[in-house]
Structure formats: C-alpha cells, structure tokens
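Handout, section B. The chain below has 361 residues.
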Amino acid sequence: MTIGTDAAALRETEVAVWKELVARYQHPDRLRATWQIVNTFGAYTLTWVLIYFALAVSWWLVVPLAVLAGGLLVRVFIIFHDCGHGSFYASRRANDVWGFIAGVLTFTPYYHWRWEHSIHHASAGNLDKRGVGDVWTMTVDEYLASSRWRRFLYHVARHPIAFLVFAPLALFAVVQRFPSPKASRRERHSVWWMDLALVAMAVGMSLIFGFVPYLVIQAVVIAVAGAAGVWLFYVQHQFEDAYWERGDDWGYADAALRGSSFYALPKVLQWFSGNIGFHHIHHLSPRIPNYNLERCHRSDPLFQSVKHVTLLASLRAGTLRLWDESAKKLVGFRRMRELRRERERERARAHPAHESPRSAR
C-alpha cells in the first residue's frame, strides 16, 4: 500500500468514527423542543407585553426591555436555524411551521434562507467556493492585486462598526426582502410571502404600540439581535488558525473540526445563543438539534480538541482581516503591510532597477 492510500484509508477510518459518534445525538426530542418553544417564544412575547406597559411609564424602561428582546430573538433564530436543518422536531411539518413563525419574528424568509445556508455548510472553508452565506474574506494576494476602490470597500466591510451595526440592519431589514437571482421558485415565493407577513405584523403592532414607537422598538430589537448573531457567526469561522483550503485539499470534516470554533461562552450567554457556540459539532452534523450539541461535544475527546475560543479571546478576532495562504492563518492589515514590504524587497533584490558600473565589471 502506498503512502497516499494509507492516508486515504486513515481519513476513511476517521470519518467512520465521527459519523458513529454524532449519530447518537441526531434524534430530535419532542419534549425538549417543545419546552424550548415555550421558554423562548413565551419569554419573547412576555417581553413585548412588558414593553407595551413600560411605554406608559418611561422610555428608560423600554430600551432595556428592547435589548432583552433582542437577546431572546437570537435564541428564536437558533430555533429557526434548527428547523431549517430539519433537526428541531422529527416532524418536517412541525419544523416548517415553527420555522416560518420564527422567520417572521427574525425578518428572515424560511425557505430562501434554508437554501443559502445549505450552501454555506457545503462550502465553509473552501477558498474556491466563497460568496454565499459567509463573511467576505480575501486572501493577502487577492487584496494586494485589487484596485484601490475594492480595497476601500473591503476595509469598510471588515470594520467592526460596519459589520456589527450597519450590516445587520441592512441584512435583516433590506437585503432579505429580495430573493437571489439564483433562487428557485419556492425560495423566491418564500421571500414574497415573508414580506407580506412582515407587513401584516408591522400593521398590527403599529395599531397596538403606535407606528413610530413600534418602528423604534423593533429597530432596537433587530439591531441587538443582528449584531449578536453576526458576531457569533463571525467568531465561529474567523479566528487566527482557521481552516481554508482549495480544491481537493478541502475536506468536510476538517472544515468542521478545524474551521469552526468552539465558542466557550458563560452559561447565560450560552442559553441566549442556543448552544450555537458548539459550532464544530453543528458543522459535523447539522442534524443534531441545538439541545444535544453540548452533550455530543462532551462525549468524546476528539470534539474537545478543537479550537477553544473564550469571550475575552474572541475580541482579537475583530482585528483579523485576510487569509495568508502561505502561513495558513488569518492576519490583520498590519501583518499584510509587512508581507507587502517583504515581497517588494525580495523583488528589488531579484530584479535591481539599475546595476552599478562596478558590479557590471
């Protein structure tokens, strides 16, 4: 047997092992799922009721409650996310019904999002398949070869204020109101139906709260939930020793275990984020419902050896901007500038502009 076939056999063995491990946790539990519906949708509804009564007292009470609603909406989105993977309930119909309801609350078209998110799972960490359902990531070489305008756009897109403040609002309020040109008929229709449902919800809520108060409150809720959700997604795939490969060098299990972090959050934040910090488990098997992710993670040392990111350490991820293919790690713009100067010096040594008469002799 050659070295190549040895490596292939080893990879097949590893795949068989992790597939057997995750299979134990892929079964939805109707009671646990229903309890999450009660404690999540119930808490979200109760918070809006409290906001209604707080409006008669003071906006100083309303704003903190709106922030709390935003945190709860993150958990609503995780349920939406699980329904999209068909993992929350065993029943497909139950997943679709609750997925649509959660989609209305999170301003996200269910079938259209599900289609785009499936592309993300099939291509995460693949440098040749970037552009759908991921964070815009350029390599160092791509950046250096880009025009000034494209570099400027990239700087804006990767700035924390842009992707934590403006991007979430634009994504949930505007971008998701229109289907992708590549979407199928069902996905396109899901966008239009969702837009219609959102108009109906906005009219109903405006009649209860007043148009301007509802608009302000809903904007705060979406802004908080969107910023938290985008940050979670960012940290889960954007860390220094992340995984990016091209062509046949890309592997599904490697992308999951090396390209998806374990975001070790405090318990209260783990609850609000629906256990999605165990993202390596989720990418290994999207069929595992969120309420089984932690148990799967703790079931085998294989899963506990992945990149461990704490809340404090995750703040550094915001300074990482470009993928350095030679070093196989994410680097910041400062490191990129150092690399550019090094390459310029190497080119100068290899191709001197003017050769002196002494050296010519």
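Note. Residues 211-237 form the longest helix (27 residues). Compare this with the example in section A.
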